[in-house]
Amino acid sequence: MGRLAETFFNAEVIATYLPALLSGFRVTLELAAAVVTLGILLGLALAMLRAFRFRLLNGLIVAFVDVFRTLPQLVVMVFAYFGLPYAGITISAFAAAVLGLALVLAAFAEEAFWAAITAIPRGQWEAARSTGLSFGQALASVVMPQAVRIAIPLLTNRTIAITKGTALASVISVPEILDKAQSAMSISANASPLIVGAGLYLAIFGPFVVVSRWLERRYGWII
User: Fold this and answer.
1) Under a CB-based contact definition with an 8 Å cutoff, are residues 192 and 116 in contact?
2) Residue by residue, what is the 3-state secondary structure of 1-63?
3) CATH homologous superfamily for the domain 17-222
4) What count of other Cβ atoms lies within 10 Å of the Cβ of residue 67?
5) Which of 101, 113, 144, 216 is an S-S bond match for 35, by CB 3.0 to 4.6 Å?
6) What is the pTM of this model?
7) What DSSP character marks residue 142?
8) Residues 40-91: pLDDT tens digits?
9) Total Cβ atoms within 10 A of residue 66
10) Residue 50 · residue 110 · CB < 8 Å
C-alpha cells in the first residue's frame, strides 16, 4: 500500500504540479464550453435550414453530416491544425481543437434536431400556417420549441461523449488537463499528476452527467 500511495497519491508531487494542472483545468473548461456551444448551435442551424427542403442545400448538409459522423475526432482536429495552413489558413491549437470537436458534435446534433423536427405531427405545421404564419415563422415559433424538447434526450449522451474528446487536444499541444498531467508525470516520474488530472475531469464532466440525466428524466417522456 505504501508503494501504491507513493506512486499514485504522492502529496509532494501533487503540491508541486497542482498549479499547472489547475491551469489545464481552466483551458479544458473553456474548450468544453466552446465545443458544446458552437456544436449545438451549428447543428440546430443546419437542421432548420434542412427543413426548407432546398435540394442542393439539403444534399450538402447530408454530406456534411455523413462525413463528420464517420471521421474520428482526432483526425478532424489534426487536419484543422496541420492541414489548413497548406490552404493559407492558420489557426491556433485551441481553435483547431474547438473547430474539430464542434464540427463532429454539429453533425450528430443536426441529426438529433432533424429527427425531432420530423417527429412533429403535420397537423402542427398546418395549424401554424392557417393562422397566417409563413413557413419560417411556423418553424421558429411553433415547431422548433417542441423539436428542441424532443431532441434533448437524444443529444445529451452524444454531447458528453464528444466533449470528453477535449483530452485529444493534447496531441496538438493544447495545454489542457491531460497535456499538463502527462508533462508533470514525465518530469516527476510519478503517476500522481495523472490521478489529479482524472479528478479534475470528474469535476468538469460529473456535473455535466448529472444535468444530462435530469434533462433526460424531464423531457424523456416526450419521445
Assistant:
1) no
2) CHHHHHHHCCHHHHHHHHHHHHHHHHHHHHHHHHHHHHHHHHHHHHHHHHCCCCHHHHHHHHH
3) MetI-like (1.10.3720.10)
4) 13
5) 101
6) 0.88
7) I
8) 999 999 999 999 989 999 999 999 999 999 999 999 999 999 999 999 999 9
9) 12
10) yes
